[in-house]
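Action item from last meeting closed. Structure (259 res):
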């Protein structure tokens, strides 16, 4: 999996910019989960901790600038990247819309039971008797402007579209894809298509998300963009567009179960 070149490159500042922000982001998540397993956390801790990790990781991105030395966006990349981001957002949203629930309630229940983690039972965001409303104590409701305030809700939206989308693309398509394929981690772009690396990264990206099937589709689309263009930047634009559209849908529709 690794060569002498990748081992030497692993600790360089350029390469650390691909994985350190992701490690810090995941560390925040694990710390909050561990605290929640020991204590009953106040609801405000969710939007506040999200804002804190978004600001910290944005600072890490600006410090490391993982895009340095990477090929940038071309004018021809914008259209396909934005369309891909829209496609993934639609794939993510449509199965959980109230309209889908009215037209195909059994299919939607199957989706929530088997295509959203944990498998085999309904997630906390779905109650067939109350859908589309969330259970009154669902933690995602802490992100609503009425509870968190518009500043924290906006930071959640900006963190989703402008921070974690960038972090995940440079980690999954910029670092992990090359590392699994044994490529030089300092080389620009994701490199040539490597089937084992491509599908491993897509599956790992899916596992990272509770909506694992939607996550798999997103990982395939973003990965295909990165490999086809030989650039991380277009995949980052697509991912950011998806997260921005999803966040705007959440705020506009009140479907905070996505958050």
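Sequence:
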């Amino acid at each position: 999996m690794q060569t002498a070149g990748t081992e030497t490159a692993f600790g360089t500042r350029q390469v650390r910019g691909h994985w350190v922000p992701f490690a810090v982001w995941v560390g925040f998540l694990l710390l909050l989960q561990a605290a929640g397993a020991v204590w009953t956390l106040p609801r405000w801790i969710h939007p506040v901790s999200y804002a804190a990790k978004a600001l910290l990781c944005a600072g890490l991105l600006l410090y490391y600038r993982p895009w340095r030395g990477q090929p940038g966006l071309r004018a021809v990349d914008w259209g396909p990247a934005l369309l891909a981001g829209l496609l993934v957002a639609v794939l993510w949203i449509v199965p959980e819309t109230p309209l889908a629930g009215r037209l195909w309630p059994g299919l939607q229940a199957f989706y929530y039971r088997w295509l959203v983690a944990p498998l085999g039972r309904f997630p906390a965001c779905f109650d067939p008797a109350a859908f589309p409303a969330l259970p009154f104590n669902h933690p995602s409701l802490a992100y609503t402007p009425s509870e968190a305030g518009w500043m924290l809700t906006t930071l959640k939206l900006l963190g989703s579209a402008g921070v974690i989308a960038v972090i995940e693309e440079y980690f999954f398509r910029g670092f992990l894809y090359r590392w699994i394929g044994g490529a030089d981690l300092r080389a620009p772009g994701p490199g040539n298509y490597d089937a084992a690396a491509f599908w491993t990264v897509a599956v790992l990206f899916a596992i990272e998300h509770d909506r694992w099937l939607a996550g798999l589709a997103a990982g395939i689309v973003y990965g295909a963009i990165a490999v086809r263009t030989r650039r991380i930047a277009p995949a980052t634009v697509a991912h950011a567009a998806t997260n921005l559209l999803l966040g705007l849908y959440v705020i506009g529709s009140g479907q905070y179960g996505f958050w």
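Note appended to the action item: The chain is about 70% helix and 0% strand.
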